[in-house]
Design brief:
Blueprint lengths: L2 H15 L11 E15 L6 E15 L7 E16 L25 E13 L2 E9 L2 E2 L2 E2 L9 E9 L5 E12 L21 E9 L4 E10 L3 E15 L2 E14 L26 E13 L2 E10 L45 E10 L8 E14 L10 E14 L9 E12 L8 E13 L2
Antiparallel strand pairs: 1-2, 1-20, 2-3, 3-4, 4-5, 5-8, 6-7, 8-9, 9-10, 10-11, 11-12, 12-13, 13-14, 14-15, 15-16, 16-17, 17-18, 18-19, 19-20
Length: 453
């Protein structure tokens, strides 16, 4: 048994003895959620042309206790998830698209089911809280836990959050392992394109609410032997009146190589999102973006711009390339990141890329249909630098994506809380060599959560 698992089991036993303490049980919450997803990913003309069509259901149990009494309170969070494959044969689960929605079996088909169980021990002193375990789901500028498909991604480690200083939220932690949205296997942490991993991702930062309308952010992160990253952010909301507002959101990342990535060690090199790099395989990037949103009643119009530096693509945690001792892919791919261009199909984060984007959304509650929302977004990236060693080297090319979605949540009756989402995205890229992957993707999602504590 792993030392971390043994320590967690012992701690859970101690907490069980204190479960009668006021607050631990009384403040507990528990729920069961289901998500059924039909996923159609049609990779059209290009070198990766294929067609993925699959349906699966995910079940998730969440339990969150209160805290025991005393100067330092203790508690427990637990989570169990399971995925069930419902349909889509091997002909629609191809090598190009596997490990992104449903894990792949030894014969190349989708597995019938997969899952995991995890828990976090937590302690609270004043307004400071520590969580240690293997069911962590951080949502920070330097790491966004992915929940974009069927099951949520999870991390192992510890995270400390403190709000003891008025207006400031401090966050720090260290993560060691990750398990992906379509995997039952824990792996080390890594980046896109690397085949080796690291067991140390350290981070620290703060969100400072200067006024009720202005928030400033700074975070630092280090994935040992891969990269160091600084983040600066500013969010300001100008309230014009009770029905109108104007929001400004500015973000800046500065990423550089670390350890074995700096020395060009095999397995630790970053593929720069299949784009250009000044030093092939090495992390070297600065990315800034700005978004402005005008809201009027149920209407929201967002416009923005993002610029990726010329020396290399943007970098974030992504364990998709990590392999086991026999060279097999662990199926731990899929990642989210804190940029506006983290869209349905593409990312728009390759070297030199300048992206203009916009989105319009409407909340139909303003016209008497609560629970119904719709939106459409468009992104266009130019000046992408072709990667060294490819026919596209020395060229600059472009890409675009259009995403649409409709969401509805039933507001009353026996099906209250049942939600349905339809999403459709179209992506087209042009490097002049027909090497880009053009794709049309559709997702139909049904969500329901039952709270019984």
């Amino acid at each position: 048994m792993k030392k971390s698992t043994l320590a967690l089991a012992v701690t859970m036993g101690v907490l069980a003895q204190q479960a009668g303490a006021a607050g631990f049980i009384e403040d507990s919450k528990a729920s069961v959620s289901s998500r059924t997803l039909y996923f159609n990913n049609d990779l059209r003309e290009g070198v990766r042309a294929s067609d993925q069509r699959e349906t699966a259901t995910g079940l998730k149990f969440d339990y969150s206790s209160g805290f025991t009494q005393g100067t330092v309170g203790f508690g427990l969070d637990a989570q169990a998830v399971m995925g069930l494959h419902l349909g889509g044969g091997i002909q629609h689960h191809t090598a190009a698209t596997s490990n992104s929605f449903v894990p792949t079996d030894t014969d190349g088909s989708s597995v019938d089911d997969w899952g995991r169980v995890g828990a976090n021990v937590k302690a609270r002193f004043s307004k400071t809280e520590l969580k240690v375990g293997n069911a962590l789901a951080p949502n920070l500028p330097i790491l966004v836990s992915n929940d974009g498909r069927l099951l949520p991604q999870a991390f192992e480690g510890g995270i400390l959050t403190s709000k003891d200083l008025d207006g400031v939220t401090f966050t720090a932690g260290q993560l060691n392992k990750s398990i992906g949205r379509a995997s039952s296997n824990w792996t080390d942490l890594s980046v896109n394109g690397a085949t080796q991993g690291s067991d140390q991702f350290r981070f620290a930062g703060a969100d400072w609410k200067v006024t009720k309308d202005l928030t400033l952010q700074y975070y630092f992160a280090n994935l040992e032997d891969f990269y160091k990253q600084h983040f600066l952010g500013l969010v300001h909301v100008y309230k014009i009146d009770d029905n109108q507002s104007f929001k400004t959101d500015l973000r800046y990342f500065d990423s550089s190589s670390d350890g074995k990535n700096s020395s060009g060690t095999a397995g630790y090199l970053f593929n720069n999102n299949s784009g250009y790099a000044k030093t092939p395989g090495e992390v070297d990037n600065k990315t800034w973006s700005a978004m402005f949103t005008y809201s009027l009643g149920g209407h929201a119009l967002m416009l923005g711009y993002q610029q990726v530096s010329d020396d290399g693509g943007f970098v974030q945690l992504n364990q998709g390339g990590v392999v086991d001792g026999r060279g097999r892919n662990e199926g731990n791919g899929g990642a989210s990141f804190y940029l506006f261009t983290d869209s349905m199909i593409n990312q728009f984060i390759r070297a030199g890329e300048n992206t203009t984007f916009g989105q319009y959304s409407y909340d139909f509650a303003k016209v008497g249909i609560p629970g119904l929302k719709a939106g459409i977004a468009y992104l266009h990236g130019d000046d992408i630098k072709g990667a060294r060693g490819t026919a596209a080297f020395g060229r600059e090319y472009s890409e675009w994506e259009r995403d649409m979605r409709i969401d509805y949540v039933i507001q009353s009756g026996p099906l209250k809380g049942l939600g349905a989402t339809v999403r459709h995205g179209s992506y087209r890229g042009d490097d002049g060599l027909n090497n880009s992957t053009n794709a049309d993707q559709t997702r139909l999602i049904f969500n329901y959560t039952y709270n019984f504590m």
